[in-house]
Input
Amino acid sequence: MDSQRNELAEKSYQMLTKAGVTELNQTIWIGPERLPARVESVTPPMTVMGRQVPETTTTITYSDWGEPVKITVPPPEKVRESAMPKVPGISQPPK
Output
């Protein structure tokens, strides 16, 4: 799995550099327990496959570190599969 992750990271890097991206900004907030509390990533505007893609901000918030987790499986009618959009130069993830 690590080799697949490395391959995906390398292909993503190649796509970004080909699109002219020279830097990605990321801010990480550390909580009082010295664990990540929030990560914000900003991808600058770029052209991909001839289309202009605007600046994109992604924010991930982490909470309740170490707390028990209860996962409820959704009923089958609430689940569906869909394929990842195909991006030239990036292989599809394994099923």
